[in-house]
Design brief:
The radius of gyration is 23 Å and the shape is elongated. The N and C termini lie far apart (70 Å). Helices cover 59% and strands 15% of the residues.
């Protein structure tokens, strides 16, 4: 649900977050729900400000109970370093708000009921987002770390898979906590949000890979230079398998060998992607290399 604009960014409230606010209302503690909303909003807007500082435009932010999902102009996920900086800014903002709350308490500017909840909420959002589970901020940092090693698609699958596992663990713990009277319905509901968001991001991994390829081509044309990465593949390897380790901000050159490990030739990343689109993922990379002419 669209709720307006802030700093030129469209804000959307996820229906599940709206349901959580409704639970606060039914429980008679809507003021706490509004505090949680404000904490999450500040968390996400700090993401936006840091992203803009790094030259990345943010188009939309969808607010979730544990933070949110920021929709960048397309270049953030294709640059792991910038994505890691932007992700780290979220938990850092909550720790800063926690410190500010402690300072206000020491100066007597305090609300007996909402003050402690404000501190707890910031610590919860900060530490929860530090989990290496996508799409939490820790998961984005984890994906950025993996992307240069295993490729953006596999990195997304792994980080989103951790997100799903963490969600199920939290759901189980929250359900047992409710049964034992240690927590309320908000913990299991938040776990369901995380499971939903992680599953959605996992499904979007192939589209992210396609966006990465397009962005790299634009970057190479614009700057004229990109770091190279060398791969070695047997001629029988299909293109769908070959592109898995393709990483952001590197242009790949593939050395192709025959069954006897003899050199067949070299193909570029651009040639591999073009053949993948036109001929399909099952085409062996050897088809892209001309066989040497006999004497």
């Amino acid at each position: 649900m669209r709720i307006g604009q802030l700093l030129g960014v469209e804000l959307e409230l996820n229906p599940f977050f709206l349901a959580l606010l409704a639970l606060f209302f039914v429980a008679g503690v809507l003021s706490r729900g509004l505090v949680a909303f404000a904490v999450v909003l500040v968390h996400e807007m700090v993401h936006v400000l840091v992203a803009r500082r790094l030259g990345v435009s943010m188009e939309k932010v969808e607010l979730l109970p544990f933070g949110g999902v920021a929709r960048a102009g397309g270049e953030l996920a294709t640059d792991p370093v910038r994505e890691a900086y932007v992700a780290a800014a979220g938990p850092a903002s909550n720790l800063a708000l926690f410190a500010l709350g402690v300072a206000l308490k020491n100066y007597g500017l305090w609300h007996a009921e909402l003050g402690p909840f404000f501190l707890q909420c910031n610590l919860l959002v900060a530490y929860f987002n530090m989990l290496p589970a996508f799409p939490l901020d820790g998961g984005r940092i984890y994906r950025a770390y993996l992307a240069s090693r295993v490729g953006i698609r596999r990195a997304t699958y792994r980080a989103a898979g951790l997100g799903q596992i963490c969600a199920l663990v939290i759901l189980l713990a929250g359900t047992l906590g409710m049964w034992g009277g240690y927590c309320g319905l908000d913990i299991p509901v938040t776990a369901l949000f995380l499971l939903y968001a992680a599953t959605r991001e996992r499904r979007a991994a192939p589209f992210l890979f396609a966006r990465l390829v397009m962005h790299k081509r634009e970057e190479l044309v614009q700057h004229g230079v990109l770091p190279a990465a060398q791969l070695v593949a047997l001629e029988s390897v299909p293109l769908g398998r070959l592109v898995r380790p393709f990483a952001p901000r590197r242009f790949h050159l593939v050395t192709v060998l025959d069954r006897d490990l003899q050199y067949r030739g070299t193909v570029t990343e651009a040639a591999v992607i073009d053949a993948l689109v036109k001929q399909g993922a099952d085409i062996p990379v050897g088809e892209l290399v001309r066989r040497p002419q006999g004497p």
